[in-house]
Structures are given as C-alpha cells and as structure tokens.
C-alpha cells in the first residue's frame, strides 16, 4: 500500500491537475499534441478509469482519439476512444477498433469491455472519459493518441503527417506512471539506418568501382576479383542485417506508412540475393557473355536502388543535416575516384594497345626484309 501511494504521488507530480480531474489519482503529460492522460488503476479488479484531454483545439471541427494497442506499437490493431463534434453542434464519443491505415474511425466494439464513454468540450479542449476492464492483470500498455479534421458529413478525416502526429505513440505504465515514446525505437532506427548505409550505400558501390576499374591493370591479376567478392559479400551481409532490423521495426510500428522505402528494400534484398547466385561463373565462353550481361545489369541496378533508398531512409529518419552531407561526401569521393580511374584505365588501355602494336610490327619486320 505504501508503494502504491508513492507511485500515485510521483504520477501526480508529472502534470498539473485541475479541479475537474481531482478524482483521478494519476496523470501524465504526453509528449506531443498538447495531450494529457489522467487515470485511476484498480489492481485487484483490472479496472482503469481514464480521462484523455487535448488542449489547443480552437477549431470546433476536430476529432481526437486515444487508444490502447494490445498487439503492437502503432495504429493497426489499436482499440480507440474517439470524440468529435457533429454538424448539429453536439459532441459525441464512441469506441472504434482500427484494422487498417485507411480507417475512418467507424464506431465498433473493442477487444475488452468498456463502459461510461463520454466527452466534453471546454476551454478549447476536448476530454474523453471512459472505464475499461482488462481480462488479466495488465499494468503496461502500448498506447497511441491522435487528432485530425472532421468533415461536414461527420466523418473523421486523415490526420496530418507532421512530426508531432507521427510521434504520438509509446508505452504507459499504469502503476508507476512511466511513459516512453518514440525514443524507445530511436536506437533501433539508428542501427537500421547505419547498417543500410554501410552495407547497401557504401560497400556495394565500392565493390562496383573495384570490378569496373581495378581489373584492367595486369598487375592486379586475379586479386581484384577476390577483393570484389569480399567487398560485395560484406555489403550483402551488413545490408541483410539492416534489412531484417527494418522488418522488425515494421512489425512493431504497425502505423509505419513508408511504402516506397519498404518496397525498394524488398527489391534490394531480392536483387542482391540473386546476384550472389551469379558468383559461380560458367566456364564455357559462349555462356559467359550472357552471364556478364545479367551480372552487370543486376549489379548496377542494385547499386542505383541502394543509393536511392539510403536517401529516402535519411529523409524518413531525419538524423540531422550533417549525416546527409557526410553520405553525399562519401558518394562524391567514390565518384571522383571513379572518374580518375576511368581516365587512368583509358590511358592504360591506349598505351597497352600501342605497345602491343609496336611489338607486332617489330616482330613482323624480318619477314618483310
């Protein structure tokens, strides 16, 4: 009982509580969208009384929602409490089970018992009240909150894709009051981005440069091929680690809506995997030319897609201007090296042919004397 009282005291200290919320033992200011959550949690009965308030609503054509997601972090699978005004001026509150990203927050039952759902609008704020029951002791939940416009037909429209709207999710501990937001996944996002930049964005282009230019010089003999294989293999392994990290993020962040980035990632994995199957070159010369064409096309296609997807990922993650500039500098350095090697290989090929022609001419002169 002492621990529970201490937890309540700590929770109360996290946000300012007005008289209308004085009957709630705990509260916390959520990270974004001017939102505050108040609650009473009864451990023995698994009952939670909540009041979710969003302030700063000066336009009375806005919907708000707070939801618990029993299966993942994000929108898909969320069990939502929704409130919005109708065209006749009345404010309604109801529940909605979210099953897709294209939801219009239709009224429906939740996966757990709910009663006493209501809402009020006062002081440029909308507050949702509800009581919910869990089937078993549950103190930590995934939750998400949101706001958006309401149409003249009383249909909730899609919310904005601003930074705050995309970061309105996290976990909540009803006992301790601890909340964790997007930062919970930031480390995983950085790992995902770093692995992909190194694997797909640097190692693969470097391997292409090695294969394109270094093999021209006779002094490298077959060393270029082994360096190329090692570079591409390391890039593939590191890239796959980054790709699987991204898949894990996609599963946990059910509201993730970066389809282009995801689809390009799948194409990269498929092309890179197919490329590994071409490591065994046919010995017959008549088949070798077809192998070379396919191998080169897949290689350049994979490189172009990998660089493009790295830039898309940087724009999604927004790690800071310096990171994008650093990657551009690396690409510029690779490009400069490629240009110098292009000039060097052209000169080397020209003088090699000239030397060979001179040797052929000198060798033929005795027969012409």
Any key phrases for this structure?
single chain, 369 residues, alpha+beta, five-stranded antiparallel β-sheet, 7 helices, disordered N terminus, disordered C terminus
Number of helices: 7
Low-confidence stretches: 1-13, 365-369
Strand order of the largest sheet: 6-5-4-9-10-11
Look at the structure and give the mean pLDDT: 78
Largest sheet features: 6 strands, antiparallel
Helix content: 40-55%
Order of helices and strands: HEEEEEEEEEHEEHHHHH
Please give the structural blueprint.
Elements: H1 2-12, E1 26-29, E2 35-42, E3 47-55, E4 62-69, E5 79-85, E6 91-97, E7 114-122, E8 125-133, E9 140-149, H2 163-166, E10 169-173, E11 179-180, H3 183-213, H4 223-252, H5 259-277, H6 285-317, H7 321-368
Task: Outline the structure in words.
Helices cover 48% and strands 21% of the residues. With 369 residues, it is of the alpha+beta class. The chain starts with a helix and ends with a helix. The model is unreliable at 1-13 and 365-369 (pLDDT under 50).
Outline of this structure?
This protein is an alpha+beta fold. The strands form 2 sheets. The protein has a 6-stranded antiparallel beta sheet, with no helix packed on it. The longest helix has 48 residues, at 321-368.
